[in-house]
Amino acid sequence: MWYVSQIGRREHYALPAHLHRMGELGLFATDIWAPWAASPRSLFRPEKLAQRFEASMGDAPVAYRSFLANLIERVRPGDSYRRWTREGRSFGAFASDAFARAGLKAGDVVIGYTAANLEQLILAKERGAKALHVQVDPGLAWYEMRHHEQSAHPEVEEAAPMPSAEFIERIGCEWQEADRILVHSEHSKVALIAQGVSPNRCTIIPPSFTSINTSGVRRLDPSRPLRVLFVGSHCLAKGFHVFVDAARQAGTGFHFVSVGSHTLKPAYLAQACKHVSILGAKTRAGVKEAMDRADVLVFPTLSDGFGLVQLEAMAAGLPVIATPACGEVVQDEINGRIVPLRDASAVVTALRELRDNPSKYEQFSQAACERVRDFVPAKHFAALMAL
Q1: What is the DSSP secondary-structure string of 106-129?
Q2: Which of 27, 127, 134, 310 gives 102 a disulfide partner, CB atoms 3.0 to 4.6 angstroms apart?
Q3: pLDDT of 188-205, one tens digit each?
Q4: What are phi and psi of 63, to 5 degrees?
Q5: Cβ(63)–Cβ(25) under 8 Å?
Q6: Smallest Cα–Cα separation from 35: which of 16, 56, 14, 21?
Q7: DSSP label at residue 202
Q8: How does residue 372 score in pLDDT terms, banded at 50, 70 and 90?
């Protein structure tokens, strides 16, 4: 049996939902589980909480923390890294205890995610179960990249502190305790190896993906500008400044739109709004609507463990323009384009090629729809079983 733990709705619960369908789920431990919020009979249905439930797991074995426990973790003082470390430790103890009470035994498999998995891994080793750890980002290398970019562009956003030693130590302990460390991309694997992880213990398995957005093959409308979309945190690490530069360079014939929260300085945000229609943060349904209205997604990230937004866009029939510093979703000149890091001119060139060649755009859109099938939960689980 498989014992899965995660904070949040990672990959929209695709892995535990698939394991439950297969009859392989021993227990799913999470922080928030809100079937009452998702029920159409509820008088009070906050949208964010409604997303913290998967209907296909209505009868699944699920353990989740109390509302009070979650509230206490979120109001305790300290910077984000100290909060994440405390929350990871607290949640890890909760999940480990839940797994033990559910009967975790030799031959079972425990799998969890960065900074919230140490206690479960230790329990797995004690009981003879297989211990799998998913490192969702490139580790310390990601924070070093962000620090470098913020130092190079102080006009865009405030410099964030580097992770605390306690936070980095906890992740290192998770790497040590795991039988196998799973990453979602070659980019992450290279980064972890540079940080001392043995190549033999690090395996690339892309995340599982189940889409709610299947719009089919797209065709361009020559009567209007090409609609270019950015989805994600508006920050330097995600390459939002590259997106803005591309919008500035592109000129007429394009409409640049972005969805997501931001950490931008007010003066930079005001300048960016001259070139990009910034819509702010949206719910999952709001993101779907933005993708339905778009023609292409630009994902100019400087470093990402994977970038699930690429698959969400492709499921909507959108070609994707991305960098090499993320998961291997885009196949260059097949379903999108791969452009160099920090190269706004290359983004504009790729956009013009699509706008000026409707048949090529349609071919890319068709291939994008087909690409999503390579990441279905069954294939993800098969890769896990192959370990």
Answers
A1: TT-EEEEETTS-HHHHHHHHHHT-
A2: 27
A3: 999 999 999 999 999 999
A4: -115, 135
A5: no
A6: 56
A7: E
A8: very high
Strand ranges of the sheet holding 336-338, from the earlier edge strand across to the other edge: 277-278, 254-259, 226-231, 296-299, 320-322, 336-338
- Map residue 177 onto helix, strand or coil: helix
Q: Residue 75 corresponds to which amino acid?
A: V
Within the chain, residue ranges assigned H as helices are 14-21, 35-38, 47-50, 67-75, 80-102, 118-127, 140-152, 165-177, 186-194, 240-250, 266-272, 284-293, 309-315, 344-355, 358-371, 377-385
158-192: per-residue pLDDT in tens? 999 999 999 999 999 999 999 999 999 999 999 99
Q: Cα dihedral angle (231, 252, 360, 246), rounded to 10 degrees?
A: -40
Question: Which residues have C-beta within 8 Å of that of residue 185, sequence separation ≥ 6?
Answer: 204, 206, 304, 305, 306, 326, 327, 328
> What residues have CB less than 8 Å from 3, skipping those under 6 apart?
26, 27, 29, 99, 102, 104, 108, 109, 110, 111, 120, 129
How are beta strands 130-134 and 277-278 bridged, if at all?
Answer: unpaired
Question: Can you tell me which residue has the tokens 């410099």?
Answer: 159
Q: Measure CA 302 to chain center.
A: 14
Paired sense of beta strands 130-134 and 109-113, if any: parallel
Q: Whole-angstrom Cα distance, residue 162 to residue 147? A: 7
> Hey, what domains does the chain have and what are their CATH numbers?
2-210+376-385 (3.40.50), 226-374 (3.40.50.2000)
Identity (one letter) of the amino acid at 209?
A: F
- Please report, for residues 23, 98, 124, 125, 250, the alpha-carbon distance to residue 95 in angstroms, rounded to integers and kept in the order given: 20, 5, 12, 15, 50
**Is residue 288 predicted with pLDDT exceeding 80?**
yes
Query: Is a pLDDT exceeding 70 seen at residue 212?
Result: no
Task: Report whether 278 contacts 234 (CB < 8 A).
Answer: yes
Beta bridge partners of 298: 321
* 3: β partners: 27, 110
| Torsion from C-alpha of 207, 212, 217, 219, nearest 10 degrees | -110
pLDDT in tens, 141-150: 999 999 999 9
DSSP per residue over 318-348, as a string? --EEE-SSS-S---BTTTEEE--TT-HHHHH
What is d(CA 323, CA 306) in angstroms, rounded to the nearest whole number? 11
Residue type, 28: F
